[in-house]
Input
Amino acid sequence: MFLPLQGAHQAQNAAVAVAAVEAFLGAGADRQLELEAVREGLADASSPGRLERVRNSPTVLLDAAHNPAGMQVLVDALREEFAFSRLVAVVAMLSDKDATAMLEVLEPYVDAVVITQNSSPRALPADDLAALAVQVFDRDRVEVELRLDEAIEAAVRRVDENPDAAFGGQGVIITGSVVTVADARRLLKR
Output
C-alpha cells in the first residue's frame, strides 16, 4: 500500500493506526476492514511538519522533532530517504528542552547549523542556544540569526556556497520545536 510519508517510523505509525481502527471496530475473521478504504485512507495521509517538503532547489524540509528521541527518528529518516551532499539545519527550541542532547544527535549528520529562536514566549534565546551549539559543533559550523526568516535565508546561502550546488543534493532542515515548524510553515507556505 502506498503511504506518502517519509521514514520507516511513518509506516509503523500507519500500521498501528490500522490496528487501532480494527480493534475499535471489533474487526476479526468475520468482520474485516475494506481493503480499498484502507488503501485510500493511507494514500491520502499527511503529516504536516513531519519531514514536510516545502521548497525545492535547495530542498527545504520541516520536522517538528522536539526531544532527543524525535531528533534521532528525524536523522534516521533523513539517512533512509534522502541523499544530501550538503545539509544545513535551522534550529530553534523551547527553553525546557534538552537542547544539548538534541544538537548532539543532529551534529554528525548536518554540515552546519543556523541557530535562531521561535515565536513562543518559552523560546530558548538564540544566543543561549548558540552557546550550546558551539560546544557541540565547531564554531565555524554555527551561525546565529535572531529572526527565523533570516535564519532560513542564511541556511540556503550556506548550501548554495557548496561548489557542487549546481548538481543538486543540497538541503535545509528546519527543526527543534513544533512552534519553530509552525512559524516556518507560515513563512514558507505562502
Summary: The radius of gyration is 18 Å. DSSP finds seven helices and six strands in the chain.
